[in-house]
């Protein structure tokens, strides 16, 4: 791999973890010394800068089990993240916007990458080492500029202090670095990671791309083509840094074989498979929803996974929910039945900036209607370059009964106000809130137990459409792969959670 790397900067610092859970929940811990706070609108699209008051640190945290993992090979969890709920001034810690992106401000000069460069590309199933040129992704001619992200302060390149206290420098945690390589995964909030030659991005959700901005200059970003388009279009990253990798194609980068596999999460999301020269294989799931089809993938059948970096969002037996197809069929059935009784119904689907597309697409296909979205969402959907979406979009809300709104707009009062905009055409609203957090052990897989919330002419259904794996899906995936080691990447903020998940892993791998 001939892609130039950035010059060595001062020691980087670690940002707090913002876990997106495809929009369902957030665990926010701010450990940045300074950062650009990019303000997003309610749907997660970049809008304007918002200064964020940052808490003072409570000291440097080191993993007591990171070394143990590599020394003894036992099951290992992520680094312990410090938990705080108040500022050093005594004020309650606030999060102004749940879709906040946190990044770094640095004033350090780095070398710019060349536009040329190449990766070694090996076709699937081939052992050829023939080198093929791969041009850097450049979608400037395809995606128009969508505006500027305004910086909220001038960076001096020096460490800042908050409330008179010195900030603590934290480096990239071990679980974001792939052992035996110079690669990191979803590690953009740590500045220039020492000796990192390739930064991998699993998908375009804020907790994974946090730290990326138009100022990025630390090295090449490897991701799927769609994720690359979104990174350029929404975050204004210089396209010369974006290295799109096609799915199901083996690439050789710095001597490491790398393959992206569809993660069954949001559009463009990828599982990342690494094979080292010594035969060791790592699989980083990013965020994913495991399914039976993954068990047929040739890499999983023919090569043992030695280390599995696992999305453990729902690694708890209480999280049981139906398959995606069952939920989509249920949503279509409810919609048809409701429209038969109330023909002048406006159907609303809640969604995040990226994800949940299959819910409103299923309704659109079943009813043969267009999908009304705002300009920001339309721009995102057009970037998918998929006729299933682009051919169904509608900018005039009066021309279709199917509308897509932000999840935050599904409150009863908000929907009542929204209905007034279309009162000449519609008299009621049927809304769907698709999220995995909706279900628990009380409901399980029985969709018939779902009870709508009704208030006058507004009816809302919470449906268990998740883009993360359920507990049983995680179990089946792990039992199929049978990895040597498992590193959970979500809900690892305390020892009890880590030990509980490790106990599940041990049970799953018995025998």
UniProtKB/TrEMBL annotation:
One GO term describing the cellular component: nucleus
Chain intervals for the UniProt region annotation (Disordered): 1-64
Ranges of Low complexity composition bias in the record: 1-15
Highest taxon of the lineage: Eukaryota
Subcellular location: Nucleus
GO biological process: DNA repair
Keyword vocabulary terms for this entry: DNA damage, DNA repair, Nucleus
Biased composition (Polar residues): 46-63
Parts forming coiled coils: none
InterPro entries (alphabetical): DRMBL, RibonucZ/Hydroxyglut_hydro
The DNA repair metallo-beta-lactamase domain, residue ranges: 390-494
Family that this chain belongs to: Belongs to the DNA repair metallo-beta-lactamase (DRMBL) family.
Name this protein carries in UniProt: DNA cross-link repair protein
Organism, scientific name: Medicago truncatula (Barrel medic)
Gene that this sequence comes from: 11439525
């Amino acid at each position: 791999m001939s892609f130039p790397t950035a010059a060595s900067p001062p020691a980087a610092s670690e940002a707090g973890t913002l876990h997106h859970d495809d929009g369902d929940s957030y665990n926010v811990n701010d450990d940045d010394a300074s950062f650009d706070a990019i303000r997003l609108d309610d749907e997660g699209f970049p809008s304007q800068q918002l200064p964020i008051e940052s808490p003072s640190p409570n000291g440097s945290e080191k993993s007591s089990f990171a070394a143990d993992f590599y020394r003894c090979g036992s099951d290992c969890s992520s680094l312990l993240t410090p938990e705080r709920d108040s500022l050093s001034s005594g004020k309650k810690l606030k999060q102004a916007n749940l879709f906040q992106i946190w990044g770094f401000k640095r004033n350090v000069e780095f070398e710019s990458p060349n536009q040329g460069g190449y990766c070694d590309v090996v076709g699937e199933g081939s052992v050829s080492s023939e080198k093929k040129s791969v041009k850097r992704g450049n979608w400037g001619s395809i995606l128009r500029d969508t505006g500027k992200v305004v910086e909220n302060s001038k960076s001096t390149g020096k460490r800042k202090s908050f409330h008179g206290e010195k900030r603590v420098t934290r480096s990239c945690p071990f679980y974001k670095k792939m052992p035996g390589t110079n690669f990191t995964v979803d590690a953009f909030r740590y500045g220039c990671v020492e000796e990192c030659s390739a930064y991998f991005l699993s998908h375009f959700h804020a907790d994974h791309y946090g730290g990326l901005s138009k100022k990025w200059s630390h090295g090449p970003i490897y991701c799927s083509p769609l994720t690359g388009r979104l990174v350029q279009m929404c975050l204004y990253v210089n396209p010369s840094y974006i290295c799109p990798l096609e799915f199901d194609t083996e690439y050789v980068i710095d001597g490491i074989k790398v393959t992206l596999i569809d993660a069954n999460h949001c559009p463009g999301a990828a599982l990342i498979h690494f094979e080292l020269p010594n035969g060791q294989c790592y699989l980083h799931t990013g965020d994913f929803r495991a399914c039976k089809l993954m068990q047929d993938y040739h890499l999983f059948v023919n090569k043992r996974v030695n280390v599995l970096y696992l999305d453990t969002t729902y690694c708890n037996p209480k999280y049981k929910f139906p398959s995606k197809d069952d939920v989509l069929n249920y949503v279509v059935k409810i919609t048809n039945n409701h429209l038969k009784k109330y023909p002048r119904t406006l159907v609303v689907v809640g969604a995040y900036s990226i994800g949940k597309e299959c819910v409103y697409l299923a309704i659109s296909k079943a009813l043969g209607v267009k999908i009304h979205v705002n300009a920001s969402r339309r721009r995102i959907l057009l970037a998918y370059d998929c006729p299933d979406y682009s051919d169904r979009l509608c900018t005039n809300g009066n021309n279709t009964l199917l509308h897509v709104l932000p999840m935050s707009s599904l409150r009863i009062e908000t929907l009542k106000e929204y209905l007034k905009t279309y009162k000449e055409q519609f008299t009621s609203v049927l809304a769907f809130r698709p999220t995995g957090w909706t279900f628990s052990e009380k409901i399980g897989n029985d969709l018939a137990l779902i009870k709508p919330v009704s208030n006058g002419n507004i009816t809302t259904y919470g449906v268990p459409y998740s883009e993360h794996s359920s507990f049983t899906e995680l179990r089946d995936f792990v039992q199929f792969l049978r990895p040597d080691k498992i590193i959970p990447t979500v809900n690892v903020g305390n020892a009890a959670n880590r030990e509980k998940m490790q106990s599940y892993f041990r049970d799953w791998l018995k025998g």
